[in-house]
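User: Fold this, then the next.

Assistant: Folding the first:
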Amino acid sequence: MLEERESSTAPRQQQKKPSFPVGEALRTYLLRIRRERELPVTYERLRSFADSVPLTDRRGRPTLWESVFYDRLDMQSLHEDLKRVYAILRVDGDLSVMQHLYVDRIDFCAFGNSAPFRVRIVNAYNDNPDHFYVKRGDASRVYGLELEHLLSPNRLNYVTCGGTLVEEHIAGIPGNEFIDRWLESPEIRPIRLAKELVKFNERCFVRLLGDMRAYNFVVVVTPDFEGAQIRVRAMDFDQQSYEGRLNLYRPQFFKDNAPLALFCTKHLRIETARQYQREEQVLMLQRATIIEDRLGLLLKAMSCETLAPLAHVHQLRQSLAEHYRRKEYLACESMGALVRENLQSIRIAVSTTNPGTPPLGH
């Protein structure tokens, strides 16, 4: 399934978002929560490959990836160091439980903002593979990963080291593959899928995660005794809090996602959709309350750094002020401040039906 994900038709090229360096405020936050670590392999070290060959999937179709090769004298030490990186990512650096692993392949993808390396690591005892990614460090993506970790039902493993970002693989069926092959499957209960799509749409909008086209999220299908359970997960965080247009933060409005939007319209009444939207708002607020101090530190750092042109911030704050009917947005001068106001807006909306809900920050 991993190779099928990248063998599908390449997404249309668009103007790339500029990469924003990890600033001092974010670096301090990452050090405090132990996401910033010393790593034996950096992104620049992996860039020094000697040769490459195009990578095809199991059906022989071309992918966006190429397998890369390094100088024979450096290969063994590089593989050992990549095992150490994997141990840091998975078991806090305890290499004693990783001795039976080996690096099977290193792939590189020039497409996309982060130009990632993907490392395939295999258990020698049972041939079970796993993957992790080494990418250029980008503040937008790091904020996106951390907001996903804190405000969504999904936990994420990642570490940074200077200009290097290491992420675990997010497993699931790519959204475009799901639309083509699974959307009308009898194994999928329509209401469960529609419910999760509404909740995913709301999460992206509140935490300002943009560009959630079908190829930027995955659908996780878990068999259950009464039909499969569904979860929709973002897997690309490059467009965290960058765009100025409001609807670019709502997956339902992307052309690629039109079949999913029509699916929800077909299977959900508007009253039910609003119920699921409110359910997700309440869950986000509950998560925010549990990690209030940590989230406060993150949003404080986010408010201090430039993640988008000021014109985008001003365009978005005007739209959000109109959407939520709250003039407080007009004082925001950063994307971090807008995320904070979004959380406050849904807290106010929830408190109108539940007066006992405390304001954000209390």
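Now the next one, as you asked:
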Amino acid sequence: MAETKGKNTGRSLLHALFSLILPGLGQIILGEIQRGIILMSSIVSMGLIFIWRIELAGRHEPNFLDAFHKSLELKPVFISLVIIGLIAIWILNALDAYLHTKKGRRGGFNIFFLVIVVFFILGWEISEINPYKMITKAPEALTPLSRVLWPWKAAIAHKMETVSARAAVLSPCGENPPGRPKEVPGKPYIYVEPTCGELSKLDKNNKIIEGTTLTVFGKNFKPNSEVNLWWIDPIGNEFRLRQRGEYVVTKTDSQGNFKIKIIMPYRLMPPSAEGKQIHHVEARQQTPTGAVVINDPLKLTISRMIETIFMGMMATIFGIFFAIPISFLAARNLMSGSWITLTIYYMTRTVLNIVRSIEPLIWALIAVVWVGLGPFAGIIALSFHSVAALGKLYSEAIESIDPGPIEAIQATGATHLQTIMYAVVPQMIPPFVSFSIYRWDINVRMSTVIGLVGGGGIGFLLVQYIRLLDYRAAGIAVWFIALTVAMLDYVSAEIRRRFV
């Protein structure tokens, strides 16, 4: 008895030693091949990923040891946790082999839980998750987020009446600087002091050297209202003045007067514009007249949303049209009569799987190259994917139908086509309708995505607004997407309730 016990202990230690030398080897020798391979591949992959992250952190170091020290300085918590985790998994792996040999049982799921934990740590670092940054940067995101959540200021507006006045500024200063503009009683009026100066310039390090400071005086504007300041250069280019990253805005007093200091801006003038040049400062004030107008973002969003809905509808119709006949070729119970039909079945299934595995976004990129930008490219992309997806769903529904009606129809001597028409099709109507409606819902949602790569629809407009940092206009598009998807969900539920 003692001799047998000693042999078992020796075997247990031997298998534990095997797993200590090569993780999972002891389990493989014991016949637990799947368990051993999982442990081995997990530890090897974690080690390789760990080495990759070390080399990435210390990529400028001459050797791996220096790279390790560098990465330890940069990410001490990550490096320490992964090393501790790997050592613990290695030891538990040997203990798992020992317990399985000695007591005929495994070490439980503790080792796999630890594997998941280490992979989570690696994923945290690879994905660059940074909760501190997320929290500290949250105030900066509040302004654009609030505009997205409540964007209706950009949807409608009042017609604006614009009044303006301008004054000339000479650059650089000369003998005869311009005088004050002539004042017309009751009309908006501005003048500047001095009436000449130097424009802002760039030094050798491309840093701004501020130009002359001007004082702008204005009167006869609407009281207690904002006034925007613009700059018009000698060749007619105009732009709103900015000071230290903010637009220059002032407010009139109760008499309609204002006074503000501005810095002459930087202007890149053509080589032909040499010598003294006359620039202009213009004060513009806009006041609402009361009439409400629909802004371009709302008009464009509505038109693009309608385009998106019809893109999804057309792609779904094309998908159904081509998927129905293909689905019968992809149904094994209908195509297993001979080796020829079975070959057609496997070929059809293979093509459907290949087409379905390529995302609509990729199909959209191909379609854009094929037919150019616009909704037609989006319809082609969605149609390809719809045919493959619906073909698979329809064929699986056909394979799960009740064989009783088929056998009954065949017993009457019906042809293959008659069997399909009278025994298969009646059973297929409910699932076909359900899958088709679901696909339309998917296509409308996907239409908003493929627009990002030029496939037309609301997505194309949305990405333009985001690139322009026009978050209010982007928010209108987001709201319309959400409302449209909600309405389509209601419509599809009603159709499904009536026909399924």
